[in-house]
């Protein structure tokens, strides 16, 4: 993603970065490192994924701001007059390569089995999101990193999960053809990674987009000088693809293992956490689930940061508090103080069940205290 931002964004020309919230916890820093720290904005999600009605309203408000010279209207909340002047005057900081462009806005999403919430973007929302991107000269960066990690919730072992839940955003954008002002670059790209489907240390990935977009990406100086950043790993992966070893690894190892671990953690949560008032996001389908995570809501008055601290100090247990997944600089839009993310991908079933038991012990102890003592 850093290479995409280097090639196709500018700290001034790119006026907003809209990020689904809760969001992947490392994504904000990648945008900040690209000089876009002033532009990050959180967009809430519901059971269908990112809220495109809210996003559309925010985009229209931004258009109104940019169309006025009224000094009382501030595009940024920071009060930085220099940045405000640059934004309204539409100057740029970086020089633009002849084979690239700078998008006016960026939209960041994880469409399938989102990290951390596990939600999947509905078809209706996918189509609406692409249309919004086309109207506002936005680039959708879709982290499609969990697409191959899906399985059926149904008991029949013979039933194989569908290979693709829904058309990807890059597919929808491609089917619609070139959008106004895109100059053939398109408005959606798909990021994939082999680190999720080969091994965590395999830091090799791929980008799928329009040919013109890819041609601009490979003109980056770092790519011209060094080529692929992980050539040795790519050689091994190429062999796995050509021999079918990777496909077999996904079907015969990863999907069955993750299904078993997911079932184990769900069973433990129903037995230990549900009676305590802990609720879990329900993907709304008895057919296909996937990814690495389950997303919990704690009962009042508990807050996730407190639970995290007590889990670590008293139970030697690591859990991720919802506040970790806020969009940096725009934390007030979505309240994540009572959410927890649990990962079931790494540990075996017995360890997962023991972890849920320890989490339940912690929550029980905290609930038995007076509210004033929950610090």
From TrEMBL:
Top-rank taxon, per record: Eukaryota
Which InterPro entries does this UniProt record tie to the protein? Aminotransferase_I/II_large (IPR004839), PyrdxlP-dep_Trfase (IPR015424), PyrdxlP-dep_Trfase_major (IPR015421), PyrdxlP-dep_Trfase_small (IPR015422)
Q: Where is the Aminotransferase class I/classII large domain?
A: 107-359
Molecular function per GO? 2-aminoadipate transaminase activity; pyridoxal phosphate binding
What PANTHER family does the database record attribute to this sequence?
A: AMINOTRANSFERASE (PTHR42858), LD15494P (PTHR42858:SF1)
Protein name (Swiss-Prot/TrEMBL) = Aminotransferase class I/classII large domain-containing protein
List the source organism. Answer: Stachybotrys chlorohalonatus (strain IBT 40285)
